Every structure is written in C-alpha cells, then in structure tokens.
Amino acid sequence: MSVPPHQTHDRVRIQGQQLQTLIEALRLHGYQVMGPKVAEGAIIYDELTSAAELPVGWTDEQKGGSYRLVKRNDGAAFGYALGPHSWKKFLHPAVLRMWKANREGNGFEIPPETQEVPKLAFLGVRACELQAIAIQDKVLTQGAFRDPTYSSRRENVFIVAVNCTQPGGTCFCESMGTGPEVTFGFDLALTEISVDGRHDFLVEAGTARGTELLREVPHEEASAKEIKTASDIVSQAAQHMGRQLNTHEIKELLYRNLEHPRWDEVAERCLNCANCTMVCPTCFCTTVEDVTDLAGTEAERWRKWDSCFTTDFSYIHGGSVRASRKSRYRQWLTHKLATWIDQFGSSGCVGCGRCITWCPVAIDLTEEVLAIRQAGSTDSAALSSKEEQ
Q1: How far apart are CA 97 and CA 164, in angstroms?
Q2: Each residue of 292-332: pLDDT tens digit?
Q3: Which of 24, 133, 219, 313 is deepest in the core (most CB within 10 A)?
C-alpha cells in the first residue's frame, strides 16, 4: 500500500475550540476517532468522543526506564511526547482470531471468518509514527505475503497528524530523519500554537479528502507571521532531542561487531521482558495458538503479538536457535538498525524512544551503538599507532 501523496495546500488557522468541530465532523463521516487521553497514569490512544477527553494541560517526562505525567502551565492539547501505545494496535491487532472450526459429523466445517473493518480516524499522529506506519505498510502490504487484516484496516484510516513541538527525554527522531516535522502520509496536519494568551492550530491539508473535511471546520487564512511562528516551534523541537544516534554506516558497523564484548555487557542487564518490542511501533512479529473446547466440538486458531526476546520464538526441533540473552538482544538491535535495511530498504527504527523509556532497566540502544562505535574508533587508533611504530 502506497502512502497517500502529500499535496501541499495553503495553511489555515483554526481556533483551539474548533478541535471539537473537527472531531464532530469526523464522526459525522462515520469515523471512530482514536486519539490521546490520560488513563492509567499515562497518555494512551483510545476512542475519543469529545475534545474534552484530550490530555489538555498535561505533559510527560521521560528518561531511561522512567515515565511520569506532570501538569503544564498552559492548555496545550498535544504538549507531550509519546506514551506506551502506538497506532499499530489498531492496524495490527495484538490478538486476532484467524479461523474457527466446528465439528460436523465425522469432519469439521470451517466457516468464513468475517471481520468487521472499523472506519478509523487517528488524531494526534506524530512524524515518527507516520514513518512507522509507512514501514508497516511496506512489510505487511507490499511484500510477497500481504496481511489482509492490516490491509483492510489501513485502507479505512483518516490521519490527522500533529507536528511535534516538545520532544521527550528519550526521543531521537531528528537523528533518524523521521521528525519532528510532519512531511507526508497525512490527510490533515496540525501545528499547535499557544502564544500571547491565544490557543490556535495551523492546519495543512495533505489529501483531497483532508481538504474536503477542512471545509466543515471554521477557519481563516494563516498570516505569514503565524506560519513562521509554527515553523520556529518545530525547528526548536528538532534542536532539543533527548537523545542522538549516529547512523553513519551503522549497518556495516553492526555487521563488523557481531562478537563485540558489549553484547555480553548488555545481556547482564537485559530481563528479556520484551517491553521494547511490545511498545515499538514497527515490530510485527506474531505467533499462533490453537485452542479447543473440552468437548472437542470447536477449535480455533488465534494470532498474537510475539517477541524475538522469548526463547520460544526461535524454537525449532531440538531447541531454541537463540538460547542466550546476548543472542536475543543482538538479534533485535541488529535487525532494527542493520538487517532491516537489507530486507526492506530502510531502518526499522524511527527514533521514538519508547524502547528506552519502557525498559525496566533503562537499556538505551543509542548508548549501546555509541559504545560499539567508540570501541571501534579506539581499536583503529591503537592499530594505527602500532603501525607507525
């Protein structure tokens, strides 16, 4: 599935209270609006029926192994970085029944599996998340094996993106070239501006249906000053990333260091809890489970999210291919940053930082790559010195 083309239009301004009008317009068009709200001590993605449910006045403080909500001193609706959820929960469900079989006489009947395809509008999608969706589009819809569930859900999505104005402490999207500015893959893109006691949004339509929906929301033409203010806000966000990752020849770097001692060091800390893969917006690994009732009259096959951090994931006859924690962490990181490029033509990491925030022991992939890179530089310098002598 190709990403909808970005058709640049003049930007307009809507007042903050018009977010409610936007949500109502989407609902009138038959969309279930999914967006950010505060629940369970975090900002999660769930169904919205009103703009009042948005995390107005809240932000998040994130660092390795730490996430907490704190109050803002303004009424920003999108003044946070990212929570534990990603949009793949709606496109690539964590649990999905693939088929059901019923006993009929001496055999079984497998009726067609009918799945209701929801018509969804995503409100508040960040630039790094748009890149993550584009990556999953390539993996799940454009390869030799097309995922019908993902494809049908993806075709029904309306995307209202939001330019990031406040990166989190673990964000490094600027290093990955995936943010913080929204540049593609959206129907509408918002930039939130809270200055001089005013609360407005600059809006850009990226598709024809975005332009059509925008007609239903009261708006005015944005001034040159407002456009510059919005641009400056996003530029400042790019300069205040919580992390950085040097991606220069990163694939070759990791391929050269598959036996680097750093893998042993990180394995001593890793809990193999799989948190990093569960919160990652691009991970797509699954397993299947077959279940039957006690009477033996019904059987079902369910698909569930899985992780390369589990021993069962690489199990074949005779045991697990990756039995050690070292091999499992190395598999995950090198796949994200190296072999993914060979498979799919891009990095599998979008720099959202969720894997760092939600790791219980604060393992930071940017630190791991830096340690390997610096060790390589030290080794090269020592070798050069020895050769000169």
Answers
A1: 36
A2: 999 889 999 999 999 999 988 888 888 888 989 999 999 99
A3: 133
Query: DSSP per residue over 217-236, as a string?
Result: S--EEPPHHHHHHHHHHHHH
Task: Determine the straight-line distance between the first and last CA of the chain, rounded to whole angstroms.
Answer: 58
Burial of 224 (0-12, 13-18, 19+ CB in 10 A): exposed
292, amino acid identity: T
pTM of the model: 0.90
Exposed e or buried b for every residue in 6-37, given b needs 16+ CB within 10 A? Answer: beebebbbbebebbebbbbbbeeeebebbbbb
Nearest to 185 by CA among 211, 158, 203: 158
pLDDT, tens digit, 9 for 90 and up, residues 250-280: 999 999 999 999 999 999 999 999 999 999 9
Query: In terms of DSSP bridges, do strands 12-15 and 286-292 run parallel, antiparallel, or are they unpaired?
Result: unpaired
For 362, phi and psi rounded to 5 degrees? Answer: 60, 35
- Around 36, how many Cα atoms within 13 Å sit in the side-chain half-sphere? 26
Q: Are 120 and 153 in contact (CB under 8 A)?
A: yes
Rounded Cα distance between 7 and 187, Å, is 9
User: What residues have CB less than 8 Å from 385, skipping those under 6 apart?
Assistant: none
